[in-house]
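User: two proteins, same treatment. go.

Assistant:
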Amino acid sequence: MTKAKTLPFRAPLVIACIAKYVEHPKVPRVEQITSAGCAVMAMQQAAFALGYGGVWRTGAYAHNPHMKTLLGLDAQDEIVGYLYLGTALTETIIKPEKPAESYFVEFAG
């Protein structure tokens, strides 16, 4: 419980990213949730482009029914994650590139 109380203070800005599901004949639930995830990634990339750091977290607090209640969500809504934004405390470590072949396998169907 003590750790939970300190989590929001790890960054100067924390955005709770929500997929507020609305039944729609042409936009299924999975697409609504996926588009919310894309919005989180776009916000994170925009922060990086502006020179800020950003960490997208999910985990137990993103899947907790009590958190949904605290945020005023309905049962079918989803917490896509929490985006922590601020000035990075360390420089990003650039990992060596892996050859593209290590990401793909040939599929012969």
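Protein 2:
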Amino acid sequence: MKIEFERFDHVMLCIPIGAEEQARHFYGTILGLTELTEQSLGFPLPKRAIWFQMGNVQLHMRAEGEQQLSERHPAFQIKNLEEAEQLLTSHGISVKHESKIPGRIRFSFRDPFNNRIELIEMI
């Protein structure tokens, strides 16, 4: 059994709480990325989230305060999420089922170095 990776879906960067307008200026105005809105996406964004389109990949940003484990992460679209979960849990790796986003099922896990990794399957 192996995970069938399809593509890189998004990366999430974290910014300090209150820096949302500065992030919009830098990524939207200076870098020229298109900000994705709840209207363009067709679903509500998570609290304190800003999403941008970068070619066929998205840049997700979220304001986060001081905490032990950051939510920064890469996300990969795969073909076999259920099998991936079985593979990871068979190796003693805990998975966290994430909030629902229309058209996707997903979970995240931490690697041995506490990096968060998200896996997504389109449905």
